[in-house]
GntR family transcriptional regulator
Amino acid sequence: MTINAHSGLPEGGKARRVYLLLRDEISNGVFKDGARLPGEHKLAEQFDVSRITIRRALEALAADGWIEKKIGAGSVVRAQEQTGQRMSADFATLIPHLVEMDRTTTARLLSFSYDNAPASVADALGIPEGADVQKAVRVRSSGGQPFSHLTTFVPKDIAVSYDEADLATQPLFRLLERSGVSVESAHQTVTAALATPDVADALEVSVGSPLLFVQRVVRDANGQGVEHLSALYRPDLFRLEMSLARVGAGEARHWEPVIGGLK
């Protein structure tokens, strides 16, 4: 399947909602390759919208390569090319896994510059607002298919030890270590975001597509922030998992994450 990154979502909030829900069901295997989607009338009842709204959503799915409109057969799910491998990361050991991912996937550097730290980044890193930072934007791919869009900010006094050519060929964590940084801890949050036009183009998805959003602040042994990362992941190619175990006894029995390798 070839996804058209420039077609965008259908017009109208209801049509966009139907488009995203159907696309997620196709991506998650609810409708497999070659399967026929329910007819427009049934879909309209299911989503409580008009048939015109359903038609707009289906036209957008067809334009993006998710389905094919066939005379007499309706809307049929198109076979997906297995150009990329869907990756999973254990939430309890996410950072080591992301470090390993740096070694096993390829990255393309989109931009490299020095700028003033945005207020939110400066606050997270514990540096003055407007302080000089090195900003880099990269896209990471697996099997030639882009799956993550990464924006990093590093304080200038650390970043001067590497240049654009270094970052284009080496993982950032290695460059930080080379500069003498001793990483001690990190804090990260996981939420969701919608693809902006530039991110959609880089990840080859439609504008407004839902993405997994991971923010991470890395600190050294003195508690000083040394890296601020904003990472956007395609949910059809990357997911977070967590293994749980029941521990304790009686009323105190509860779930705890299992710290270990990936399944």
